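User: I'm writing a tutorial on reading structure tokens. Could you give me a worked example: one chain, its sequence, then its tokens, then a sentence or two explaining what the tokens reveal?
Assistant: Sure. Here is the example chain.
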Amino acid sequence: MKQQMLRAAEVARILGLHARTVVRLVESKKLEGARVGGLTLVRRTAVERILGKSLDTSSDHNRGPTGSSLQASSAVKSGKAGGTCQ
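And here are its predicted structure tokens:
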């Protein structure tokens, strides 16, 4: 099964983080993702795990309330966001 990947900027918007923070989290293996050429891609399932819900693909309004963003960024920074991308 093919994993759907999200760009760092998309993940940053969803989680309420800066895109560079997402890149650093992937590089430090605190967030499942990979560098592909000049892009940093993150597994959609890793973002959904952090949020505790499935991302709605039919809407462009995937970012939750501020509280969700704070919880999400705390989970990522504490290393509870998942392992490495294989």
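What the tokens reveal: The helical segments are 8-15, 19-27, 44-51, 66-77. The radius of gyration is 12 Å.
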